[in-house]
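Section 5.1 Outputs to date
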Amino acid sequence: MEYNGIIGKSGLQFFGKISASISHEIKNALAIINENAGLLEDFVLMAEQGLPLDPERIKTLSSKIMKQIQRADTIIKNMNQFAHSIDADEKNIDINMILELIIALSARAASMKGVTLVFLPASRSLSIETNPFFLLNLMHSLIITSLDHLGGNKQLTISSRSFLDCGCIELCGIERLESESLLNHPERTAIASLIQANVVANIQNHKIEIYLPCKPA
């Protein structure tokens, strides 16, 4: 399947934005590791000069370094999963797993806006056959738009549930939903049509609903 025009352009821009965000996160983790490694070098110099060392301070520095290594490892795992999302036009995916990934990939943008992302997964696995890359693209676009339309608690709750023969994703806590023309956004409309997603602006309940066809049992 070829992705030309607005869909192809949107996909390239999305891939670039996420790649840049990931590289920033990795760079930040490495900067903290480098800073703490420098402090450990200072302790080595102190020991060579016969000065007393505080084991607790060394233990704390070591813990900080390990924490950042684990953080970087998680970021790279997410990057790998994201990169493989474009491997196939369609594949069987679990909605909960794809939402965990897009929340992780959107966390930096949310943090910069002072927004907390909360995930409430469906109680059971919801399997759908879709293009994971463009589902991620659609969800990221909706999440980023929602960040500027939240209530005073600055929290965006993302949940998933089953609905008849569909899977439903909800973005809740959006106060000024009526001011955003979600359904007329050309890129979102094209991507939603491509993956057979129905995007609904539920103004009364302050949320966006995305309905996705489930894989037949």
